[in-house]
């Protein structure tokens, strides 16, 4: 017996066509802006408007998602006591990682970036955005998995980072492993899995970053 599914409710696409010359210029300007984006570990504690964070998260929420389930939750942490608890828990996990969990090859890679188990930026940055991946939903008493949630949340995080950089803020993608402590500290349900922890703010006036290079176009693109 075949099932009957609801028909899609379609609406006209709102799309702005841009002249080719303008397209190229916008693409170049956007690249030049994002090419200045760097992962920052030296933050200022200077306050930033919450409205910028809200708009950036709204931007992230426009990301495509599997079956349009939008399987993301963005928890914005400003409370100093909560940030301290997060830092302490993260540093405990990171200590274990740097002193036994990570392979020698992994540690060698990280050594060139100057990272270690100390994470003061988790308290200094004015905001922490903790992104959770929703792995299932319950509607009308029935539980259903979210489809392609890992890919969907990854795309949303990329758009969030771009939006924050575009607004003139610095970020860091921090993924201590395991991250279950974020679920516990922030009192999130079991269906929300920690995905990434992002400190946000202005860089410190004396901030420094590793001297690295990005791969060239020929190294990352092929035309077939």
What does this structure look like?
The chain has 224 residues and is α+β, with helices and mostly antiparallel strands. The protein has one domain: NADH Oxidase (3-Layer(aba) Sandwich). It is built from eight helices and six strands. The strands form two sheets. It has a four-stranded antiparallel beta sheet with strand order 1-2-6-5. It is globular and about 60 Å long.
Strand order of the largest sheet: 1-2-6-5
Shape label: globular
Unreliable sequence segments: none
Assign the CATH superfamily.
NADH Oxidase
The major β-sheet equals: 4 strands, antiparallel
CATH class: Alpha Beta
CATH topology: NADH Oxidase
* Second CATH tier, the architecture: 3-Layer(aba) Sandwich
- Give me the count of strands: 6
Distance between the termini: 45 Å
> Nearest-angstrom radius of gyration?
20 Å
User: What is the count of distinct domains?
Assistant: 1
Helix/strand structural class: alpha+beta
Beta-strand level of the residues, as a percent range?
Answer: 15-25%
The chain-level mean pLDDT equals 96
Number of helices: 8
Spell the H/E element sequence.
HHEHHHEEEHEHEH
Helix content: 25-40%
């Amino acid at each position: 017996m075949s099932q009957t599914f609801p028909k899609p409710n379609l609406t006209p696409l709102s799309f702005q066509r841009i002249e080719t010359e303008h397209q190229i210029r916008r693409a170049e300007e956007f690249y030049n802006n994002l090419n200045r984006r760097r992962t920052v570990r030296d933050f200022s504690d200077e306050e930033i408007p919450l409205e910028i964070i809200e708009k950036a998260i709204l931007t992230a929420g426009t990301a495509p998602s599997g079956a349009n389930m939008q399987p993301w939750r963005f928890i914005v942490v400003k409370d100093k006591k909560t940030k301290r608890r997060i830092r302490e828990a993260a540093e405990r996990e990171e200590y274990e990682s740097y002193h036994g969990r990570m392979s020698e090859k992994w540690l060698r890679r990280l050594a060139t970036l100057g990272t270690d188990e100390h994470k003061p930026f988790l308290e200094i940055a004015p905001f922490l955005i903790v992104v959770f991946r929703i792995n299932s939903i319950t509607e009308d008493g029935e539980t259903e998995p979210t489809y392609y949630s890992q890919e969907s949340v990854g795309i949303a995080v990329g758009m969030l980072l771009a939006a924050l950089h575009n607004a003139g803020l610095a970020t860091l993608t921090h993924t201590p492993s395991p991250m279950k402590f974020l679920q516990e500290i922030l009192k999130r349900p079991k269906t929300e899995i920690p995905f990434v922890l992002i400190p946000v703010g202005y860089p410190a006036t004396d901030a420094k970053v590793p001297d690295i290079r990005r791969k060239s176009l020929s190294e990352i693109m092929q035309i077939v």
